[in-house]
From TrEMBL:
Identification of the protein by name: DUF3823 domain-containing protein
Top-level lineage group: Bacteria
Originating species: Chitinophaga niabensis
InterPro entries according to UniProt: DUF3823_C, DUF3823_N
Residues in DUF3823 domain copies: 33-122, 141-248
Pfam families assigned to the protein according to its UniProt record, in alphabetical order: DUF3823, DUF3823_C
Length: 253
């Protein structure tokens, strides 16, 4: 029994000793800020997108310790702005990805042919803007109209090519009127009961480029409330993310 007690005591001492040697991460938490905007190179206005993983994202590669670092990603807001307050101080190569001509392009052998990434130090609050060429420009034509007879909403839009680079003049696949009870409206957040999508086959969507397209919501909209509207259009390229209009609000009587 005495031997057993001694054995248990010895084990406890080993555990206590190992606990005393535990090391803690003494590096300061990331506290630098990177902020800015993703802009349409043509209009110089912020490029509209959607929040989350089907919108636009920043790609950061910290070069302070390695020439081949593991990328770090974070997403921009739907209005094209971004702000991250939890970044380590250092030297970074920065790019953006989304429904626009890629900032980094490769040839058939994997060699970089275009590289518009930016390299800079991030310390304190660092601001940077990117100018990109969207696949499509999607714009409102007039204001949304409430149809009192059948309690629907009609909108008109026009979409055009956002780049002169013909390598990215792919077929227009569809146009989508997104309707939501909140202003975070898009392909990631919409009410399918009222939203409407027009799909195009082959090159038929290209025939709509530069034309005024009319879209009308489905079903009867409930009265005495507000809805948020947005139209997206996309091409048959990559992950097929939408280019968007701004968000509009309509009050249903």
């Amino acid at each position: 029994m005495k031997n057993k007690i001694c054995h248990i005591s010895f084990c406890i001492l080993i555990l206590l000793a190992s606990g005393c040697t535990k090391k803690y991460d003494d590096y300061p938490e990331p506290a630098e800020t990177l902020a800015g905007n993703i802009k349409d190179a043509g209009s110089k206005s912020n490029l509209q997108s959607e929040a989350g993983d089907r919108g636009m994202r920043l790609v950061l590669e910290e070069l302070s310790w390695s020439s081949t670092p593991t990328p770090y990603y974070f997403f921009a807001m739907q209005d094209g702005s971004f702000r991250n307050t939890k970044i380590f101080k250092g030297n970074y190569r920065i790019s953006v990805e989304g429904p626009f001509v890629p900032l980094v392009q490769y040839d058939g052998s994997g060699q970089v042919t275009v590289d518009k990434r930016k390299t800079m130090d991030i310390a304190g609050t660092t601001n940077v803007d990117f100018e990109v060429e969207p696949f499509l420009n999607v714009a409102w034509v007039g204001e949304p109209a409430y149809n009192a007879t059948n309690k629907t909403i009609s909108v008109q839009v026009r979409f055009t090519r956002g780049t002169a680079n013909t390598a990215f003049h792919k077929n227009v696949t569809d146009v989508f009127l997104f309707v939501s009870p909140n202003n975070y409206v898009g392909n990631n957040n919409y009410d399918n009961k009222y939203s409407v999508q027009v799909n195009y086959g082959g090159t038929s969507g290209n025939d709509q480029l530069g034309q005024t397209v009319t879209l009308t919501t489905k079903d009867v909209l409930p009265g005495s409330r507000s809805f948020f509207l947005r139209v997206g259009a996309r091409i048959d390229y990559g992950l097929k993310y939408y280019n968007y209009t701004t968000v509009k609000t309509i009050n249903i009587p």
